[in-house]
Amino acid sequence: MKKLMRNRRRGAIFLLGFFGLFFVLLLSRFLYLEVVGKANGRPLASQAARQYLQKETLFSQRGDILDVNGEVIAENVTTYSMIAVITPRLTIDKNNPQHVVDHEHTAKVLSKYIDMKESDILKILDQKLDQVEFGTAGKNISSSKKNEIMKEKLPGIIFKKTHQRIYPNGVFASNLIGLVKEDEQKDGTFLQKGQMGIEDSENKELSGTDGSINYSQDNYGFVLPNAEKVLKKPVDGDSLTLTLNKRIQTLLEERMTAAQKKYKPEEMMAVVMNPKTGEIVAMSQRPTFNAQTREGLDKSWRNLIAEEPFEPGSVMKIFTLASAIENGVYNPDAYFKSGSYKVDKITINDWNNGDGWGDITFNEGVALSSNVAFANLLDKIGTTRFKSALESFGLGKSTNSGLANEATGDILYRYPIERVTTAFGQGTTVTALQMMQGISAIANNGKMMKPYYIKSTKDGKTGKVTKTKPEVVGTPISKATANATLKQLRSVIEAKNGTGSMYKLDGYKLAGKTGTAQIANPDGSGYMTGPNDYIYSFMGIAPADDPQLMMYVAVKKPVIQAGESSTDVIKSIFNPVMQTSLQYLNIKPEKELNAKSVVMPDTANMKVKDAQKELKTSGASVTVVGDGDKIVQQLPKSGENIFVKQRVILLTNGNVTMPDMTNWSKNDALKFSEISGIPINFTGEGYVLKQSIPAGQKVSAKSEITLKMEDPSKLPKYNAKPSTDEANADEKQETDVHVNDVAGAITPQ
Fold first, then answer.
1. Are residues 440 and 421 part of one domain?
2. Which member of 65, 176, 383, 655 has the lowest number of beta carbons within 10 Å of its beta carbon?
3. Which residues 6+ apart lie within 8 Å of 415 measured at CB?
């Protein structure tokens, strides 16, 4: 018993000592904090103040992307995310509740405004959380819809401002422009980051710097009166003006879509460039995607024009021809024996099964795209000099365009047979961007221009505009050689049996070269042998006497219809786009301009009836916009050439009225948008099936016009042909003169 008492006494003494020591240490800590005023090296006052200090992010705007005329390609718009406060703790005044009071009523009302069932909204509101969101249905809410919801005066429903990147043109150079991904941050905000194309390569310039505002609040979250605020202003990102022309790009997309539907190729590429500056005027590919809806993105992640090297076929002969002329070994009137050419034990055949055309001149060989002609030219040039020439044209290396993952291609030049096949476009690989850069030297007096797509940059902070200067990246040939090469390339178009005779333009002299390339098997075991297993292409330069535009179109493995040829595929894209581009850019046609065209008169200040009478003889389709009595604006502009059935829009001095756009092309609809200043939204591709605002109704810049587009074959009462902007797209080809000028060229002996 005594032993037990002693143990208890010892235990009590131990506990007393332990708690006594703990109390002394705690008291010492309090005294230290009171005297020194710091904890862990940091002032206590600042830590206490931090509990009542609120920091709010002031979001910057990502820079806009515009076309060469200032039309929007990509921009940020303010949207809202909807939040429901569930917990009643934030409600101080019961007469002014700050949380959702009636869940059933709130769910019923919200179901009218967002894409979510009433029952699903109710499930979200019934969760035991402080606040909830509504998934994608509650995001990207427009200002107008947000205001409508706020008018319902639903307690606890609040909105958080966000920014959404929009691409109003849908399918529009999408693989060049790219898109933005929005990553949610820990604080619930979203960070916009470019994922591909210009949005990615120029992400640093386009991205802004967020600002912030700091202020003090009380325990209930209210800002304290007379609280000091610390403001850091946001800095918006730079805006980019591109070299792309919206009108030309839109027409190119229409033609590419039509060809895709009709011929179902595996891939297509098309580029329009100004050879004097290197400016990319238009660029498109298939497959592609809609940047706004993301439709097709899973099938089209790469920019084929910059990232996909391929064997170009006979378009490559342009470089061989220029090299021969530059080295003084090309005599257009000299004869050679066509048909076949031997390299060691391998025979090179002309594309007509090696039959050839007997003894013909080199000028005829160029027009007929004879492989044997170019094999003979290589002998005259010399293999070493020819490789140097190819390298001077920029082949085998990147153009350094600034786009991600740009390919370099490969000059295949190890063995004698590879050197010969390179001379007519087989074996060696290039990118479409390299082709545009190299051939710009031929179209620009020997000066090779670097392709570029950013016209100018506007600083988001200072507003200063910096223009991109055209860059000469080499002079592979002389001016005399460039002009002589263009003269020979005209024979491809103008000669009776020229392989490019079907690409003639109305009123403009054209130089160019066709191409048909075999496609290598993925496993490297030779080439594909199917009837459509080729890459068909055409490079056109116009006007040939003073080139202002060059356009390259390549189509891989199209399904060619009975009675048609590969030329029909390329022509349906090249002819309408090149013809319209030259006219739109007001590039004067040759003196012998086809009589079907007339000069657009100046109708400004004319009475409507007089203007219509003036245009009656032109055969153009005239649309008067507005209810005024005098003309104030017109498209096309005065002095431009107009053609039969081309749409002419006249704007009057009265109220702007909505025209009947049924069966209009997208390009014609954009003319109305341009002349009226009223934006238009498009859904689908093709021609106008329906319009959201009826014809005759007054419209303004605030009007929301949506046009539903559809394939012409599906339009009711579609009897009229498209306007002359696309007039030549579907003309039937007279004869099939463009046959495989590379395919079957090599025959082992």
1. yes
2. 655
3. none
